[in-house]
User: Fold this.
Amino acid sequence: MPHLPTPSCRRRPRPLPVGRALLLTLLVLAAVGCGRPGSPPVKGPKAADLPRYAVARNFSLPASPTWTAAKRRGRLIIGVKEDQPYLGERDPASGTYRGFDIEIAKMMAAALGFPERAVTFRTIASANRETALQNGQIDLYVGTYTINAKRTRQVGFAGPYYLAGQSLLVRSDEHDIHGPQNLAGKRVCSAAGSTPYQRIEADYPRAVLVAYDTYSVCVDNLLTYQVDAVTTDDAILLGYAAKVPDQLKVVGAPFSKEPYGIGVRRSDHALRFALDDALAAAERNGTWQKAYRATLGVSGVPAPAPPPINRYPAG
Ligand code: GLU
Assistant:
């Protein structure tokens, strides 16, 4: 069942008639779909540009309970996001998932011996990632998932495979917000359970925080003047801004480090090490760079050097 946005706020924004919110969302979607005079063409990963990953033959990882159960089942279940442009996006018509995180997921599946047809993607919101891994709902998680000390007590992380930083998205007509120092009294939306939400709460207590399950609901709220800013990683916000560049802009410099890891069950060190090895190989042989160019790289930003992998010991 899809997650319904459940607002949990320090102060609730003024309610907007549902009809108007829906209308604006449809207008934005229409603008995205058709393009408009003066706005750049909407770019996105095309199936033909996406790399193909060689599926490892005779791969075996008996020390990993997750891998063993997935092999027996014949499917690898990977938790992802579905509303983050260029990172993890689901086409509602075809059900196909696209984006850099999805490519990393397919790359890892291939290294573990699972072809794309044996992969099931499952959308999991930021707040539910640790539980989904712990209760076996998913085998891995690949979705803008920051590695930090608190989470590492609950789950394991392979990687990092990308380094993002927290930033702010505002409407093009906003002239007062240039960075987190300008958020006092402003309504700021983020995803529940995310590191950007927690950072605003801890470091900018005068901001009026609003939380939803997903960033796309925050963006709807921004476009309909329910909130003044959306905060999360720059990689995510740049994707939303690229969809409606005449209505949204990313402001200021990134104000945190968000190293993205692949989430696994905490005790499954064998799986974590196998993923670290697969990432290192993909970064060495150019597969990582190809995946980046076909997804996040369509914005024109050249592939950055991937951050060093942190193969921390079992324990
Ligand atoms: N990378 C941040 C986090 O893991 C924000 C993006 C997200 O919510 O997925 O919390």
Residues 22 and 220 are 9 Å apart (CA to CA). Confidence is low (pLDDT under 50) at residues 1-42.
